[in-house]
Fold this sequence. Notes:
49% of the residues lie in helices and 13% in strands. It has 280 residues and is α/β, with parallel strands linked by helices. The chain has one domain (9-144, 204-277). Strand 4 (148-152), helix 6 (160-171) and strand 5 (197-199) form a beta-alpha-beta unit. Helix 1 packs antiparallel against helix 4 (83-95), helix 4 packs parallel to helix 8 (232-239) and helix 7 (205-224) crosses helix 8 (232-239). The two termini are 33 Å apart.
Amino acid sequence: MKWYADNSELHGIKEAEIPDILLFGGLVVSPEAEHHIRTGVESIKRRHTGNSRSPVKWNLKDLRDLYKTQGKTEIYESLMRTSKEWRKEVFSCLAETDCAILISCIEGYSADRQVLKDKKEELSRFIFANGLMRFGLHVRDEKPPSAQVVLDWPDKGNAKPFDSEYAWAFSRGRTANGSVTYQCGKLSNLGFADSVLFTSMHHSTLLQVADLVVGATREFLECCLQKKDSGQGVDCLRLAKDNFRGAPDNIVGRGIVVPSGNVDLLSRARKGVKEILNAT
């Protein structure tokens, strides 16, 4: 079993100078589910671009320079033109697959740019550990023969927050600061690999799907915070809402993990699941 995870961020309700809500997570898959999703998504990409290995992201503009450098602008333009169609097809593929969506998020406690920049690594550690704990509980319950965490290469190449948190969880069953004990126990006792696996999103279909899931969840949270109207992100998540860990009744807490201290974000997420995600 693998947890493919990526990150994103957005502005909360405090009008912070830079994004103050961080998201981290993606998709939990068995080998069978991974094969089904990879072949399904690559078939979708082939239909829309003629190339099954064309990388995709929720924010396609991030890939514009890559396609330009490779002389494949026609593929980029095709993906842009048909984005609503292929995104819904990807989430429909998830909906027919036995996989789990697991997203951890946190809102910073300041609106000041420098404070948020100084605290970003600490917040990244926290949401990674928070998500990793839930993945550990999922593995404990499902009892697969092995478990692996697969991450996109981190911003600025700084893998230390993830490596050190994982090492503590693996060997000691605690967060790196020692403040929280994993309810699932040591990851080493659950068949976890001894280290995180980093790879390039551009070459991993499942990491691309994780990016799409996180991007759609970000838009859902923006809708919960009344930052934007319900749109494509919410439409996509509705297709795969039953894939959230804890669905249908405990999505917030098991599938969308928010610290109890983020009272307003937590309550808005719970309300959003009831009134937005489950709306027909």
